Amino acid sequence: xxxxxxxxxxxxxxxxxxxxxxxxxxxxxxxxxxxxxxxxxxxxxxxxxxxxxxxxxxxxxxxxxxxxxxxxxxxxxxxxxxxxxxxxxxxxxxxxxxxxxxxxxxxxxxxxxxxxxxxxxxxxxxxxxxxxxxxxxxxxxxxxxxxxxxxxxxxx
Length: 156
Hints:
There is one protein chain. By secondary structure, the chain is an all-beta fold. The protein has no helices and eight strands. A hairpin with a 5-residue loop joins strand 5 and strand 6 (about 105-110). The chain is globular, with a radius of gyration of 15 Å.
């Protein structure tokens, strides 16, 4: 059993978590903290907008970070523009899972027209409206964005 804090000086909300066969915990969430703990070599070590998604991986005893990074653009990311009352009653939703290795795949929403995408992605530009769905895959150290996809055109 373990318990730990993870966050900075702003609004930090975990949205979803998963544990792999090695007992390593991965969490995705939304943050407004400009000082969120990230690991050396993180994919992104700065808050890009009002809120960013974050991904953090802990070792099996939650005594060390295996990877931690921001992911986002210049607007609000990992926040919904409408309340999802049928789904836990909150405005912050995201999903995360392990791919069979230590890589993680994450799904969140974005309001950023400059949310990062990878070359050759199916959709590389913001669809319009107030927010798009997106998903991305990070390596186990949260240093490399393996793929990114934007989807939709929510007009809220």
